[in-house]
Write a structure and sequence with these properties.
Distance between the termini: 26 Å
Radius of gyration: 19 Å
Largest sheet: none
Strand content: under 5%
Structural class: mainly alpha
Length: 168
């Protein structure tokens, strides 16, 4: 059971962190530079493929499986694991992962959903976006970019702590 749980945790964690690092490092800058041409990709990613919901779901699985592993280690050690260097290091990574979830729920996903709805409204109107719509898109893109950068930074802390916890 523990091996399967660890496998799920590591696999989903790698996918989550890798997806966020890719978005922050490559996708968002490329879409920004593409200008209006990025709307079709954005729509596919956000509305059709439901990227924010899928990544958030994977993040939840990662965090829940990690918390379960941590709780098992705590219970098997009668609480001493949580006070050990490794336990504390895993704890720091867990807090960073939980903070990333909060960023995803409060900044990234709502901004992505609003961008998708705005893009659909612009497409339905059949013309170019109004100045107000352009301003709203820019604001939402900036918020999503900020949230994504924050998430990537927090996940970097998580990845580092998970990688070194056994050795501290």
């Amino acid at each position: 059971m523990m091996i399967a749980l660890r496998f799920i945790h590591v696999l989903t964690g790698v996918f989550w962190a890798g997806a966020v690092f890719f978005v922050v490092s490559f996708l968002l800058p490329s879409m920004r530079d593409a200008g209006p041409g990025a709307q079709a990709v954005s729509r596919q990613l956000m509305v059709v493929r439901k990227y924010p919901i899928k990544i958030l779901s994977i993040a939840i699985v990662t965090v829940l499986s990690g918390l379960w592993l941590y709780a098992k280690d705590i219970s098997m050690s009668n609480g001493t694991f949580g006070r050990s260097h490794a336990g504390r290091t895993y704890g720091v990574g867990a807090v960073a992962a939980l903070a990333t979830l909060v960023v995803g729920f409060t900044m990234i996903t709502p901004s992505a959903n609003r961008l998708g709805a705005l893009g659909a409204a612009i497409q339905a109107a059949g013309g170019p976006p109004t100045a107000e719509q352009q301003a709203e898109m820019a604001r939402l893109q900036a918020r999503m970019t900020l949230g994504s950068r924050l998430a990537a930074s927090l996940l970097l802390v998580t990845v580092i702590t998970m990688a070194v916890a056994r050795y501290v």
